[in-house]
Amino acid sequence: MQKKIDAAIHSTYGIETFELKRIAIAPDLQDTVPLLMNDDSLFEIVQDTDLVGYLYLGEAPSMKQKFDYIVMFDLDLVIKKSKVLIYREDYGQQIGSQRWLKQFIGLSATDVPLYAENIDAISGATISASNMTKAVANVLKSIAILEEKQLLP
Fold first, then answer.
1. Whole-Å CA distances, 88 to 14, 33, 56, 63
2. d(Cα 136, Cα 67) in Å, to the nearest integer?
3. Residue ranges of the domains in the chain?
4. Spatial separation of the C-alpha atoms in residues 67 and 134, rounded to whole Å
5. Which long-range contacts (CB under 8 A, 24 or more apart) does 115-123 make?
6. pLDDT tens, 126-150?
7. Taking a C-beta distance cutoff of 8 angstroms, is the pair 69, 86 a contact?
8. Cα 15 vs. chain centroid, distance in angstroms?
9. Global pTM?
């Protein structure tokens, strides 16, 4: 999975070398965000000594399994790209297409993605697409809370 994350960062930010620095979220704040944000989920993307963006690594349910995804942000906490890293079902892989995922690009903490309203539905991938949309919405809500608590610039 790390190779997929590295490739996504390289293609999104156009950088060869970088470091992922974990962002620690205090246990008391865990109850205030809608997503699990442990030491292995929220990262700064750093090139040399420069912060170039942020990455959230999460998982969401599909029909019977879970899938792994990332959401990458620019310095203004606007989504640069989202990507499904590992999808474990026979049906619904369409949620991994950049054609569908590009709908999340440009969203920020003030936006609310809603499946089949401002995010297109996918026939044959309703559960996965709906859950990816909910996951991104929860990432944005969590980022807004962390930004409000001044844990992110």
1. 29, 27, 20, 10
2. 13
3. 2-148
4. 13
5. 122/92, 122/94, 122/95
6. 999 999 999 999 999 999 999 998 8
7. no
8. 19
9. 0.94
